[in-house]
Structure formats: structure tokens, C-alpha cells
Specification:
The complex is a heterodimer of chains A (about 425) and B (about 250). Chain A has 16 helices and twelve strands. Chain A is globular, with a radius of gyration of 23 Å. Chain A has two domains: about 5-210 and about 405-420, Rossmann fold; about 225-405, Glycogen Phosphorylase B (Rossmann fold), CATH 3.40.50.2000. The two termini of chain A are about 30 Å apart. Chain A has helices at about 30-35, 35-45, 65-80, 95-105, 115-130, 150-155, 175-185, 225-230, 255-265, 285-300, 315-320, 335-345, 355-360, 375-385, 385-405, 405-420, and strands spanning about 55-60, 85-90, 140, 160-165, 190, 205, 240-245, 270-275, 305, 325-330, 350, 370. With about 250 residues, chain B is an alpha+beta fold. Chain B has two domains: about 5-120, no CATH class; about 130-230, no CATH class. In chain B, about 55% of the residues lie in helices and about 15% in strands. Chain B has 13 helices and two strands, in the order E-H-H-H-H-H-H-E-H-H-H-H-H-H-H. Classes of the chains: A alpha/beta (about 425), B alpha+beta (about 250). Chains A and B meet through helix 2, strand 6, helix 15 and helix 16 of A and strand 1, strand 2, helix 7 and helix 8 of B.
């Protein structure tokens, strides 16, 4: 065996490598989940980025899935010896109203972009371009809000990558035309799924999102803690197994369809439906949908509707763990990481075959897919009747998430993309 | 003397291959025209996506044909055609096209809804040396449990099908005069079993085939050394018995 490889410890680093990975850090917590070989592979990929600095840019440090992911990714990349900083583009209410409008339009909810909106966006971009420290070798810009920075701040030799977390398959053409000239200047773009990608003149890569198994929403929980949280929420665990959908009250999540499917289930089996979610208090349409759901729920036996405030991560964790079947009967979806969250907890999942769900649910292996209300009811009854099937799907589902939807996999993908660009 | 074998891991950069299928005809067209890397992604790389599965799911084409087109007969034929990871990609392409041509000639096939279209993906690999090399087949056996599943896949399957040949571990073992090691690895890989099991079973088979050699080596050592080694083995075993099994891997 050659000299540099005599020690078979995970900390083996060849003579020309960077500083060894930080021990006892966040990444070490993954060792027993993904195995030391996977961490060694991350170290090997990180060595290829030796001498390069990365900068992540988004518009918020707290709240939202992107910020949640960035907190961990920045930490992990630094632990791997890849210096990574995180810059937050700031904005006032006017700017965020415009970017919210763009965000909605890219999802398909059109509202015209005025000249004033365009000016607000441009003005804030100019202001932030002067303030932000964008001095890395690779700048990773997340989502549309900071996309315009490239034309003002790109330095020679830098690589700029646009990371889009939004499903652009139903994008509004006017809003996209507003963004496209900026996006086209990037060296590459990254999307979560192939279905979300619009035509672009730059290379496009696919990096699915991932979950943090140690976050409040996903961390391990003892049965006593689950019971205490459920009790605190005023829910009764008697009266049959729970079928649960946790989603904001939005028509595309089809809460009425879930109630209808449960009505069919309840006619044949003893069970309870729990519809839990947020988004009603600050969204006029959400409040309207919640009112409809409450009205419909009154007509079906054993249905509970629970409005969760923002930040109810521990509660969501407990509710998923207390459920026998988790549903995600959406009519349209982005990536739907809620499915991975439920699979991680070894839950049996019934979900629609839309958006990123089929990447997470392989029918009859990691969960069950349904395409209709009757289909959702049929698969739910199957799961309620069959603990062995629930156990098997739950075990395979967790293994699938472990290999494909934890942060370690997303970091690995990013390291590969960055290496190919630098 | 040949070069030492350098273990590397790979990460796969995925990107759209620029084709979409909504039915058997467009699936056939896509399969006929996408680059080999795309076929490799949709068929062979299923092993990497489901490394811990009890048995491997069918390839992406078969899975989509069953789920979106509800054509179970064609799906199972596509699944069977793609169930052999070491086959040449152009042979594989021909087999898939033949199955689809036969299906298309029989009856009018239903198309899938636009929302359920099949988007072809391609991928290219970024290689990163793991930092350990083996000078002999025995050292390969020692190092094998330390490599990650992607590295195992790369050296057993990808380097053989897509190259480069120097990273093909089976060829290297043959050149090193270890044909039995090479054959057992090749046989198991050809079976198309899930990656974790494949890596574990290859390692176990290699170790078993070294038992005689190890015993012979032991007989050449002094009694004192052998007693010391035996005590270490017993201590390791006792340690294992003392350690409670982990109930929860969270």
C-alpha cells in the first residue's frame, strides 16, 4: 500500500489536501446515518475545490425553506474545508412586494408587472450591488430576487450560478421575460427537477432539494414527547388511526379532495382525518380555503382541522409521527419535501403523482401513488388494513430518503457542479 | 509491474437531455437519439439511486411506461431488457427499440397526460480520488469496505461501461493475476443486485477466498504471535457481544 494511504481512518487526507475536515462538527452527526464512506467521498470532492471561495446569496436569513437549507449547507461546506460565506440581499417592503408578485407569477398566478415595479427592482439591485461582499470565485444566487446582481457585480474570472428553487413550468411569460436577460448572463443554472426547467441558453443542472434530519421538524422523538405535544394541541388519539395531511390551506393541495377521499375511507374503516396547516392568517385566499374546509369537515365524521402558526416545526414532527397514514394529495406541487419528511419518519404515504413526488415515492416500494379521490381512498384503506405493508414501505421510504434527500446528497451535488465550473 | 489501483469516488451532475416523451412513439424516438450517458442514467444508475433497496426497482423507462402509460406488458419487457448492468449501451439501446417497435406495430398506444411526460436526463461524472491506493489484490480487499457505494458503482460498473478502462477494478485484478477475485466481482455485478448488498457480498466473497492463504501465513508465525492474535480475536468478539445493538439509527 502506498505511503499516503497506510492509515484507514476517515481522517486520511493526502499530503496535497486541504486542512482535515472539522471533527466533532455538524457533519459528523451524519456519520451513523450515511456511513463514513459517504463522508470520505464528500471530503474527496471538497479537496477538488481547494483554494476556491464560495458565496451564497439570498434574501432572508430566517424563515422559508431556502434559508433553512442554507444555514446547514454553509456550515457543512465550511466544515469540509471549502470557505463559504452567506450574503443576504436586503430590501424594503416595496421591493419584497414586487418580488412576491414575480414569485407568484413564476408559479402561474399572474399579476401584471408595472414600470414602477421594474424600477423598484432595479433600484434595490443597484443599492445592494454596492453593499454586498461578492468576492468569491463562485457566486451562487438563490431565486429571482437577487438575480439582477450579476450585471452589476460580476468580476473577471468569477463563476456565477443561478439556483432556482421554484417550479417554472407554469411561469407567466411577461415576468419570465423580465428575468431572463439577467439569468442568461449566468454561467449555469440549477433547478430542483427536470420538469421545472424553462428553455435557457446556459447549461442547466438538476439538484433536488433535501431535508435536515436533525432539524426540529425531523429530529428523532420519543413516544412520550409525541404524546405530550399531541395532548398540548388538544387532539385525541383515541377513535382510530390517524390519516393526516399537513399542508397550507391552498386549493392546489386539494384539502377538499382529501376530505372526500377520507369520507370514502370512513364509510369502510374506523379512522380519523387530521388536516393541519398554516397560511390562512396572512393570505386572504388561504382564509377562504380554510373556511371552505371547515364547512366541508362538519359534514364528515371524525375530521379535525388544525391551523398551525408559522414555526410549528416540533408540532409537525409530532403529528407526522402520530399518524398511521400521511397523505399528500396535491393537484400541483413543487418538490413537496413534506413527503420526504414523512418518509424519513418511516410513515406510510399516499400521494399524488405530481411535481417532485414521483422522485420520492416509487409506487409500491417507498409509498403509494394515487391519481384520483377513489385511488387515494383505496390506497389509504390498504394501508390501514395492512401493518406489514406500512412497515415495509416505511422502511424502504426512509432508506430512499437517506440516500437521496438528506443534505449530504445535496452538498455532494453542489460540490460536483462547482468543481465542473471552476 | 502495473500501476497501483487508485480508488476514486464520483458525483454525478445531472442535466436535461432535451427530449420529452408522452407516449411509446416519443419514448422510442428519445431512446434512439439520446446520448449513451442518458441511457446509462435512466437504466444503470437506478442502482445508485436505490442502493439499500431489498431488490432493485425497474429502470426509469419501465417504471414510467407502467405508471404513466399503464402499459404493463411493455413495462415488464423494458424492465427485463435493462436488468443487466454490464451490457454494452448500444446493445441495450437496440433491445429497447426492438421492444418498443413491436409494441407500436401491434396497437394504437395511449399517450400520457402532459403533466406525466417523461423528461430524458443525462449525467456526467465528476471524479475525486479518495486518497488511498492498492498495490496488490490483497490490499484491494482491505480497502474495499472503506469506499462509499458511489465509488463501488464507479469501479464495478461505470468505468467498465463508460470508461476510463484504468478505473475498471475487475480488469485491474485480472492483470494483477487475481482472476478469481475478478470473476466473483463480475458475476455478482452482472446479477444487478442493489449496491449496498453488492459491495458487501463482493467484500465477503473476497475475504472468504483469502482464508486459506491467511491460515497458511499464520502457520509460519511463532506460537507466541499466534496466541497474541487469538487473544485479540477473542477480545474483539467479546467487545462485540458487550455492545448493545442500536435500536434506533436516528
Amino acid at each position: 500500500m502506498s505511503e499516503s494511504t497506510a492509515r484507514f481512518e476517515p481522517s486520511v487526507v493526502p499530503a496535497d489536501g486541504p486542512e482535515p475536515r472539522v471533527k466533532g462538527g455538524w457533519l459528523d452527526r451524519y456519520a451513523h446515518l450515511v456511513g463514513p464512506g459517504t463522508l470520505r467521498a464528500l471530503e474527496a470532492l471538497a479537496r477538488r475545490l481547494r483554494g476556491h471561495r464560495l458565496v451564497m446569496v439570498n434574501t432572508t436569513k430566517t424563515g422559508g425553506g431556502v434559508a433553512e437549507i442554507l444555514h446547514r449547507l454553509v456550515l457543512i461546506l465550511n466544515e469540509l474545508g471549502v470557505p463559504t460565506s452567506w450574503e443576504v440581499m436586503e430590501g424594503d417592503e416595496r421591493f419584497f412586494n414586487v418580488t412576491k408578485k414575480i414569485h407568484n407569477a413564476l408559479h402561474g398566478r399572474t399579476e401584471a408587472l408595472t414600470d414602477e415595479d421594474r424600477e423598484v427592482y432595479a433600484e434595490r439591485t443597484r443599492h445592494e450591488a454596492q453593499r454586498l461582499a461578492l468576492d468569491g470565485d463562485l457566486i451562487l444566487i438563490h431565486d429571482p430576487q437577487p438575480a439582477g446582481l450579476i450585471s452589476l457585480r460580476r468580476a473577471p474570472g468569477q463563476r456565477w450560478v443561478w439556483r432556482c428553487h421554484i417550479d417554472l413550468s407554469s411561469r407567466d411569460p411577461d415576468h419570465w421575460e423580465f428575468l431572463r436577460p439577467s439569468v442568461s448572463q449566468y454561467d449555469a443554472s440549477i433547478f430542483s427537477a427536470v420538469e421545472f426547467v424553462p428553455p435557457l441558453p446556459i447549461p442547466t443542472y438538476l439538484v433536488p432539494p433535501s431535508i435536515d434530519p436533525f432539524s426540529e421538524k425531523n429530529r428523532a422523538m420519543e413516544a412520550e414527547e409525541v404524546a405530550a405535544i399531541v395532548e398540548r394541541l388538544g387532539l385525541n388519539r383515541r377513535g382510530g388511526p390517524w390519516v393526516t395531511q399537513i399542508s397550507r390551506f391552498d386549493r392546489i393541495k386539494d384539502p377538499i379532495g382529501v376530505i372526500e377521499a377520507f369520507r370514502m375511507v370512513r364509510a369502510r374503516r374506523r379512522a380519523r382525518l387530521l388536516l393541519a396547516g398554516g397560511g390562512a392568517s396572512d393570505d386572504p385566499e388561504g382564509a377562504e380555503v380554510l373556511a371552505e374546509v371547515l364547512e366541508r369537515a362538519k359534514k364528515v365524521k371524525d375530521v379535525t382541522v388544525l391551523e398551525l402558526p408559522p414555526g410549528s416545526d416540533v408540532e409537525i414532527n409530532a403529528l407526522q409521527r402520530a399518524s398511521t397514514v400521511v397523505m399528500q394529495k396535491s393537484l400541483r406541487e413543487g418538490f413537496a419535501l413534506t413527503v420526504s419528511e414523512a418518509l424519513w419518519k418511516r410513515r406510510a404515504v399516499v400521494a399524488s403523482a405530481v411535481g417532485g413526488i414521483p422522485l420520492q415515492i416509487l409506487h409500491e416500494r417507498t409509498g403509494l401513488l394515487a391519481r384520483s379521490i377513489e385511488g387515494a381512498a383505496f390506497q389509504t384503506v390498504r394501508l390501514l388494513d395492512n401493518p406489514d405493508l406500512r412497515h415495509d414501505l416505511g422502511a424502504e421510504g426512509r432508506a430512499h430518503v437517506r440516500d437521496n434527500f438528506l443534505h449530504t446528497r445535496e452538498v455532494r451535488d453542489y460540490l460536483a457542479v462547482f468543481t465542473s465550473l471552476l | 509491474m502495473t500501476k497501483p489501483f487508485q480508488f476514486s469516488t464520483v458525483a454525478h451532475i445531472e442535466y436535461p437531455a432535451g427530449r420529452v416523451a408522452t407516449g411509446l412513439a416519443t419514448l422510442r424516438e428519445g431512446i434512439a437519439r439520446v446520448p449513451p450517458e442518458s441511457l446509462f442514467f435512466h437504466i444503470t444508475r437506478v442502482m445508485v439511486r436505490y442502493p439499500r433497496a431489498r431488490d432493485l426497482p425497474p429502470n426509469d423507462f419501465a417504471n414510467w411506461t407502467a405508471a404513466a402509460l399503464q402499459n404493463l406488458e411493455v413495462a415488464e419487457r423494458l424492465a427485463f431488457a435493462g436488468a443487466q448492468p454490464l451490457v454494452e449501451l448500444e446493445d441495450l439501446r437496440s433491445s429497447l427499440i426492438r421492444i418498443l417497435d413491436e409494441a407500436l406495430s401491434k396497437k394504437h398506444a395511449e399517450d400520457a397526460m402532459e403533466a406525466a411526460a417523461f423528461h430524458f436526463i443525462s449525467a456526467r461524472s465528476v471524479k475525486a480520488p479518495l486518497g488511498f491506493t492498492a498495490d496488490s489484490p490483497e490490499q484491494v480487499v482491505q480497502l474495499w469496505p472503506l469506499v462509499d457505494p458511489s465509488a463501488a458503482f464507479y469501479h464495478l460498473v461505470e468505468a467498465r461501461v463508460l470508461g476510463p478502462a484504468e478505473d475498471n477494478i475487475v480488469d485491474w485484478l485480472r492483470v494483477q493475476g487475481a482472476p478469481r477475485f475478478a470473476e466473483s466481482a463480475e458475476d455478482l455485478t452482472r446479477g444487478g443486485i442493489p449496491l449496498f448488498r453488492l459491495q458487501r457480498e463482493i467484500g465477503a466473497r473476497w475475504r472468504r477466498s483469502e482464508i486459506t492463504k491467511r491460515l497458511l501465513r499464520r502457520t509460519e508465525r511463532s506460537d507466541a504471535t499466534r496466541r497474541q492474535e487469538a487473544r485479540a480475536v477473542v477480545a474483539r468478539f467479546a467487545g462485540r457481544l458487550r455492545k448493545p445493538p442500536r435500536e434506533n439509527d436516528e
